Structures are given as structure tokens and as C-alpha cells.
Amino acid sequence: MTRDTTPPDDAADGDPAHSDEGDPARSTEADLPQSDEGDEPTDETAVSTIERRLSSRREPYARATVVRREPPVSANVGDRAVVTADGELHGWIGGAACAQSIVAAEAQAAIEADEARLIGIAPDPDRIDRAGLEAFPMRCHSEGILEVFLEPVNTAPDLLLVGDSPVARSLARLAGELTFDVTLVAGESAGLEGSIPAGTTVLGETDPETVAAAVDGEPIVVVASMGSFDARGVAAGVLADALYVGLVASDTRAEEVIDRAASILERDPEAIQAAVTNPAGVDVAAYTPAEIAASLLAEVVDVRGTAGGASGSYTPTSCGVTADSGDASSDSQTDDGVRDSGEELATDPVCGMTVDPADAPASVDHAGETYHFCCPGCADSFREDPDSYLEQLDETAAP
């Protein structure tokens, strides 16, 4: 497809008001020796440094690489540049100002659409126009042909998972299929090998400041430690200016977690509450850890695509995972109803989560019955006061 980028007549005729003279960043090829060998090979070190800097700041950019040239353009095949989201070009793709402006504008469009594209610039664009290439007229005096491949790089936010629970592990596995850098805060847990993707970063520390410093700015955070260190996870998300802090907990438990996080950070509980999404996950009637993880991942993907970038600014489209986190250090009971999921599955009497007895993380024998739990924290809470949990289990199961 040929696209016309003809400037106003006075600019095309060399009107000083539209001239590139005196602009060292956009000098015309008339100012450069006309050599078939090219004059200003790309400084790979400088371009790579800029890419790393943009990536570390999670700023989108596009790589521009010269893939074809015909003299007298001054670029070489393989020369490349980086174009930022606001159109700044760093590197070398030839000295023609009109070519630079076309590359910069099309790179911005590629970043916006998140789609790579191949462009060509020639005095007669019909000569190079073909399927898969957008052709533009060369309006500079130097003539020549230049074809440039534009590759957008939109960095994904870190996904910080807090907790070594079945839900967190399932979410780590599912997120491994997407372009997330996943960090799992596992505390003192061991034996994660094989249960999460090999590329997952595992943190043993649960200190909020340490956790926040371990991820890049504005991560997406899901707190699902099931009571082990939920408050510290929420505090870490707030300290990291997270795009989203999802808490897997009942309303009652969430209030306790938020109060504790506010105490840790010495901040207003209302400010912490505003930064937290609870219930977390889209409402898909999720029962098992894997199903809950799938609902959480759906919301995480939505956040990545729609969040405005400020903590607490995300508004979920639909959410509904309310499994009580069952804090291992508390006797508090869940306020969630128990979901009956059939004879083959069991209900955790502490948090109400559906558990597969065959691979339950913890089980407790009491009064001749075996009860299965989603995590050791729930099992510990049950051991401390089994009668209170069983009483509530009977109440919620009653018609």
C-alpha cells in the first residue's frame, strides 16, 4: 500500500521555515557524504543501552531495523534505531530527515497497535509497493530506497503472587502461558520444584519493603497466602505502587488484613482499602484452586489491558472469589457459605474452599472423621478450635 506524505509546497521547495538545516538531530543527506557504504554505522552499544533503560522503566518503544537499501541512502542493512512512544528516534537509519520522520511516525503507530510492520521509502513508492509493505514517497533530495522493519516492544508488568497456596501455584502455572514476569513470595515453604514454571522467581522473604523492591514499578499483585502473610503481601503491593492488588479473602477476613496492612505501613486503613480489590477474580462460580486461579488470571489480563496505571485506579468488570484466607494465627471464622461440589470433593471447614482429598495440602483427623484443607494455615486454625468451625459448617450447610 502506497501512502502519500507530501509536505506543503513551500516545504518541498526548501522553504527555510520547513528546512532541516541547523537541526543536528535531523540533518538531510545533502549534509552527508553520498557513499554506498553508509557513513554512520549504528552504535549498537548506545542503542542497546537505551533499550535497557526503557525496559527498566517499562516504557514502550519500537525497534527500527534497516532491512534493505539502494544507494545513495547513507544507511546500511542492519543499522537500527529505537523510537520512543513520543516519537524520539535514537540510533541510525539514515540521515534523510523525511525518512526519519516517517520512521518515527510509523513506529509510534506500531507501538499503539502493538503490531510489527514493514515500511518502504522511495522516490517512486509504486516501485516497491507489495503485499506486507507500506510504501511512502521519498521527498528528500537524496533519493535512494530504504526499507525498515518496525518491531514494537510493550513490556508487560510484573505479576507478584503472594503465598505458597494451591491457588497461587496454579496461578503461577497459568500465567506462565502469558508474557508476565512472575514472582512468587513463598515465605519459608520448600519443595516448589516441579509445581511452578522454571522461570518463576521465588522469594523467601515476606518483609513488605524487601518484596516491593524485588519487582519493577507498578506490578500486578495477587495475595493468596491463605492467612500466612496476607497483610504483608497487601503492604508490599501498596509500597510497590501496584496497578492492582487482588486479595483472595472473605469480606470479614479482608477487613482484618487491610487493618493489619495499614498498621504495618502506618497509613489510613481507608487508603489501603481503596488500593485493594476484594473479592478478587471474575465471577465464574470457581470452586477448586485451579478454577479460582483461572478467574484471577482473567481479571489480571483485564487489568493489564485497561488499568490507568495508578494504585487502586482499576475498576473490575466483575469479581467474585471470596475464599477466606484463614489466617493461621487467628481463631476468626469465615463468613462465606460452604459450596457443595459433590461426593468426590471436600469442603475446607475453615475457608469454605473446595478441596480434592487426593491432593489436599493438609488433612486433620478429628472425632473419627478426616477433614481436608486448602493449606496448612487452615489446618492449623482448625486444630486450635475444631468445634467452632464444625458448628459453622453445620450452620451453612443447613437449608
Task: Name a few traits of the molecule.
399 residues; alpha/beta; Rossmann fold; 3 domains; 6-stranded mixed β-sheet; 6-stranded parallel β-sheet
Topology:
Layout (H helix, E strand, L loop, with lengths): L8 H4 L31 H13 L4 E10 L9 E5 L4 E3 L5 H17 L3 E6 L10 E5 L7 E9 L4 E5 L3 H10 L5 E5 L15 E3 L4 H6 L6 E4 L6 H10 L4 E4 L3 H15 L3 H7 E2 L11 H18 L39 E2 L6 E2 L6 E5 L2 E5 L2 H9 L1 H12 L2
Parallel strand pairs: 4-5, 7-8, 7-10, 8-9, 10-11, 11-12
Antiparallel strand pairs: 1-2, 1-6, 2-3, 4-6, 13-14, 15-16
Helix pairs in contact: 4-9, 6-7, 7-8
Word description of this protein:
- It is built from eleven helices and 16 strands.
- By secondary structure, it is of the alpha/beta class.
- It has three domains: 145 residues, no CATH class; 149 residues, NAD(P)-binding Rossmann-like Domain (Rossmann fold, 3-Layer(aba) Sandwich), CATH 3.40.50.720; 52 residues, no CATH class.
- The strands form four sheets. A six-stranded mixed beta sheet has the order 3-2-1-6-4-5.
End-to-end separation: 68 Å
Q: Helical element count?
A: 11
| CATH arch. level architecture of the largest domain | 3-Layer(aba) Sandwich
Taking all Cα atoms into account, the compactness measure Rg is: 28 Å
- CATH topology tier name of the largest domain: Rossmann fold
Query: What is the CATH homology-level superfamily of the largest domain?
Result: NAD(P)-binding Rossmann-like Domain
The CATH class of the largest domain, by name, is: Alpha Beta
Number of domains: 3
Strand order of the largest sheet: 3-2-1-6-4-5
Largest sheet: 6 strands, mixed
Mean pLDDT: 78
| Secondary-structure element series | HHEEEHEEEEHEEHEHEHHEHEEEEHH
Structural class, please? Answer: alpha/beta
- Give the helix proportion (percent range): 25-40%
Task: Identify low-pLDDT runs.
Answer: 6-41, 308-343
Number of strands: 16
Share in β-strands? 15-25%
CA-based shape: elongated
